[in-house]
Amino acid sequence: MKRAVLLVGHGSKLAGSNEAMDQVIARLRQQDSATLFQAAFLELQSPSIPEGIDFCVKEGAQEVTVVPYFVQTGRHVVQDIPRLVSESQARHPQKVIHLAEYLGFDDRIVAVVNDRIKNAR
Could you read off the pLDDT of 11-30 as tens digits, one per residue? Predict the structure, then answer.
């Protein structure tokens, strides 16, 4: 079964704003070449979440996992993204679309923040 992962960022008009997310996707592709990894955005950029899911399905994915690339909870994480995923599932009832947890808290993030603090000196 072909799988896809849709990494969802907020979106920005600022040039280069997706660089970190693009790097994450590139690393994921290196680790798992059998899975389709794709970016999508909540606002201001393309593809949108529904467009990203449609692209994954068009590319043959039977299962799509949507991963919100957010560290804080809020309306987008709690309401908007789940609604868009649910609407996409209704458009593609023959496919399996999962919504993963947003990044949120993780001890590994604490280590990254500590590195940033040390490098700020």
Answer: 988 888 889 999 999 999 99
Identity of the amino acid at 120: A
Written as six digits, the tokens of 113 are: 């923040």
Q: What residue has token string 């079964």?
A: 1
- Could you write out the DSSP letters of every residue in the chain? --EEEEEEE---SSTTTTHHHHHHHHHHHHH-TTSEEEEEESSSSSSBHHHHHHHHHHTT-SEEEEEE--SS-SHIIIIIHHHHHHHHHHH-TTSEEEEPPP----HHHHHHHHHHHHHT-
Beta pairing class for 96-99 and 3-9? unpaired
Residues 22-72 pLDDT 10s: 999 999 999 999 999 999 999 989 999 999 999 999 999 999 999 999 999
Predicted TM-score (pTM) of the model is 0.93
CATH topology of domain 3-119: Rossmann fold (3.40.50)
Q: Give Cα separations from 37 to 27, 29, 40, 84, 113 (angstroms).
A: 10, 7, 10, 19, 26
